[in-house]
Amino acid sequence: MLATLKEVLEKAEQGNYAVGAFNCTSLESGMAIVETAEELNSPVILQYADSHRHLISIDVIGPIMLQLAKIAKVPVVVHLDHGASIESCRHAVDMGFTSVMYDASAKPFEDNVAETRNVVEYAHERGASVEAELGHILTSKAGAAEGNGKSYTREEAYTDPEMAKEFIERTNVDALAIGFGTAHGIYTEKPVLDLNRIALIKSAKDIPYVMHGGSGLSEEEYRTAIHNGIRKINYYTYLSLAGGRGVMQYLEDKKDKDAIYFEDIAKAGITAMKADVKRAMKIFESDGKI
Ligand SMILES: [Zn+2]
């Protein structure tokens, strides 16, 4: 069933676990994510990133995501990831998304507060939740944070606990993405994580916090982050790689190369993505929580 981010993360707070937020870029990935959540009795966040519009439009995949959520046996949040503008957040809410992220983290603090508040007012009036970002998520390849091509040092990327408190109180967001050393994409070098910072931010203001760049950490790092207050973990890169590997394996194993059907390739991708989503949900300890 369709759920809001607020509902799902409140339960995660009570149970001290995190809910996986998996990016959906195709019908196949959406099916893999929701089917796994049902098999594990886990809540899940099915999200569409504005940056994936070159792969598929929200106007095509959005209604499919909403339908997958509505017929699911477990709570599914349909969320806009890294909404690039106030307009795109409003568009997602109008379509029926139950949650949006507005990312103005590259802008000055006061602009981030004012614009996020604008999105919160619109979304809350319509029953949807809002995630925002303060601090910066690094990008692993270039070592620079995302957003308008600006680059940040590690120290600049870390979220300040007092600023987080002020930001949350002034914007009334439901969840906040924070910087503590994680990066989007594939880690080419070991990330320098400040996991204690999560606990400091959490003790300054007790709301659910979000980890971006969640692919590729060790199980121990995930568990510490969750214990310290992370309740939503964005996960995509390694899921997509798992699907690719599943397809490659299928093609290698297939003896009759003249009988390769697209539906079988899609199925091999779904099976491999499901195994990776299952592994992630077990680490996040969201399995069996419904
Ligand atoms: Zn992100």
TrEMBL record:
Gene3D superfamilies: Aldolase class I. Zn(2+) 1 binds at H82, H184, H212. Binds 2 Zn(2+) ions per subunit. One is catalytic and the other provides a structural contribution. One of its GO terms (molecular function) is zinc ion binding. Signal peptide: none annotated. Keywords: Metal-binding, Zinc. Its cofactor is Zn(2+). Zn(2+) 2 binds at D103, E133. Dihydroxyacetone phosphate binds at G185, G213, G214, S215, N234, Y235, Y236, T237. The keyword Acetylation does not apply. GO terms for biological process: carbohydrate metabolic process. NCBIfam families: cbbA (TIGR00167). This is Class II fructose-bisphosphate aldolase.
